[in-house]
Amino acid sequence: MTIEALQNRAEQILRNAGVMPVLTVDSVDQGLRMADALAEGGLKTLELTLRTPAAMSALAAIKKARPDILVGAGTVLSADQAQASIDVGADFLVTPGTPAVLAEALAKAPIPAVPGAATPTEFIALMALGFRVCKLFPASVLGGIAMARNLAGPLAELRLCANGGVNEASAADYLAEPNVLCVGGSWMLPKSWLANGEWDKVRNSAAKAAQIVAKARGAG
Predict the structure, then answer these.
(1) Using CA atoms, how far apart are residues 130 and 107, in angstroms rounded to an integer?
(2) What is the pLDDT of residues 18-77, one digit of tens each?
């Protein structure tokens, strides 16, 4: 599949998601419970970060148990991590930043990739490789909505997933920007809820996020 086709798929994934929970898992069981609660609330596209030893196993387990859920491997920092994620069944790849070597590997990957960047220069370099669906990170530090809005003029073809400092209160404002397909965040997964097994709270928070997306898409 060409990078253009894969970027079309990336755009579809992010637009359909609207809000993409970012998971950092301590165990496979926790990852499965998180995915179930989020999906029950209406969020079925997830970014699972590769920040913990359990991450790869959890990704594989979620894909096996819940094939209806799209799981992206997040915090991909190297070509080796990208390949390992593909091998365990990741549906797409997400990076926090994208140096040239990693960008070239993502451009050759057989699944959609959403490379991260923080400056116009970085986005232009990614667009030169065929990417037009990228992650704006860390969004709030970079100016948030104002940053996304200012990128829209010179980089009219660029579409963004805004991550970093986005929360329930700001999600709708980000999604109102024409070039923002999606926002990512972990506000529906506070550590205290996870530690106490309060999956009903996760589910309810996910449902609120799904409602934000529905309203932003004109369906609510």
Answers:
(1) 8
(2) 999 999 999 999 999 999 999 999 999 999 999 999 999 999 999 999 999 999 999 999
Of 64, 135, 168, 191, which one is the catalytic site residue?
135
- Order of strands, edge to edge, in the sheet holding 133-136? 113-114, 92-94, 70-74, 45-49, 19-23, 180-185, 159-163, 133-136, 116-117
Catalytic residue of the set 11, 44, 47, 63: 47
Distance (Å, rounded) from C-alpha 196 to C-alpha 67? 27
Among this protein's residues, is 47 annotated catalytic? yes
How many whole angstroms separate alpha carbon 147 and alpha carbon 140? 9
75 three-class SS: coil
Distance from C-alpha of 28 to C-alpha of 61, rounded to nearest angstrom:
7
Does this model's pTM top 0.90? My answer is yes
pLDDT tens by residue, 144-155: 999 999 999 999
Residue that the structure tokens 């992010």 belong to? 14
What residues does 91 pair with on adjacent strands? none
Residue 199's CB is within 10 A of a number of other CB atoms, namely: 17
Dist CA 153 CA 144 (whole Å): 16
